[in-house]
Amino acid sequence: MMEKASKAPGRVKEIDSPSNPIIKELKGLEKKRVRTETNSFFVEGHKLVLDALDGGWTVRTLIVAKNAAGENRVIELISRCVAQGVDVLLVSNKALTSLTRRDNPQMVCAVVSQKLGSKADVLDTTGTWVALDRVRDPGNLGTIIRTADALGASGIILVGDTTDPYATETVRATMGSIFANPIVAIDEPAFLDLASQFNGRIVGTHLEGSVDFRVPDYSTHPTILLMGNEQAGLTDDLVGACDHLVRIPQAGTADSLNLAVATAICLFKAREHGLAAVGEDLS
Ligand code: SAM
Question: Which atom belonging to ligand 1 lies closest to the Cα atom of 204?
Fold first, then answer.
């Protein structure tokens, strides 16, 4: 899983046994510790691998089921990877099932290098960032990354101790959007410092917010839309950093909305002007 230094063509290797050491090593990417140590993560599906390549991400290893290796689109992908110096593993169904722990695994997978964004990306922005305070649920995070991509947000800020954006479950839920926007991971003091330098508005979402989420004018300033933890909401210090504290009106008996749903509702409002600008105003 070491990153290749040269552009020599990638090698193609066949693996049949699920207990092959390379399969065992790849399985280690299930663990956050291994993903962090190797600075890499596991991606499943032909579309996601193409998204990674097209987005300029470093693909380290391509893994293809032997019985799919004759399909035209797979042959094309293998040639593209080999030409870029990426090693290709042609694996048996048994090995692939063992590697992915799925009965019906995707026929194409890859190991890709992690790539996080920086605070400078946020400070340079003219758009909308979504900041998530200690998000815990991988499905929520993946859905928010996908939604942020679809609604034209500029990126995601992970604040504090969050679930790993490169966990396989999260990457699956992003449906390829993991490769679309920068993700910046910082602790709460670093976020508060960033907020103090940010040339725009911090809009926090809170069940006790005094402002309807539709009221702020999101079109005039860059925005950080700040969302709270699934159980505890926003910390007091994060609340203190907000220019507005907004609430989505609710009916019925639910205490609150699911985090990903609340993010989608607020982000759509915050990005409405931007979506109209790209010709997506369907009113
Ligand atoms: N028990 C938590 C609390 O008291 O804040 C509930 C957290 S809620 C499941 C997770 C996050 O979703 C909230 O911190 C907020 O960012 C957002 N959220 C959910 N429903 C909301 C609403 N009606 N208005 C504003 N934000 C909401």
Answer: 16
